[in-house]
Amino acid sequence: MENFQLAPGLFHTQLNLIWAILHIHQGSLEEIGGLQYYISLLDRVRLGAEHPDYRTLVSLATQVLVGHILLYWEIVSGMSLTALADRKSTAEELKVFATKIYHTYVSARAVEDVSGQPDLEMQDRVLRNIIPLNRDLLIFYKLDLAIVTITFTPILFFFSRNHAADSRLI
Question: Count of CB atoms within 10 A of residue 112's CB?
């Protein structure tokens, strides 16, 4: 019992989480907002295998999440990122934008707002795919960042019961 572990290692937790995200949000090529759509769009053919390369999958997840967040900044602010940067907004204004982005495109409440509505327009069906994907990618990103920076509070939060109720992945 020299190498006994009470829980999986952090890398294996990350690996299983990103594979679960791929499995849950894979979708199809035609389904905008599914990961298969982004895999095709970004020409990441190696991700079609049964066990895709971990680093390539993390790179895809980061590109999708960052791309979505940048798009939401433009939508919420009503201006391009360049114009927003040139405007030199105050911290309070940026916080308002960020809060609106989180509550509209990432939070559990945003997921509830678009889930279970059978007669949605095309744009709303895309949001029904993208909002849970945003939430799950952000969970992965926060876990990855906490591990890389050796910040254990977010890791403990990740494994807590309260957070588990907010995600299908845990």
Answer: 10
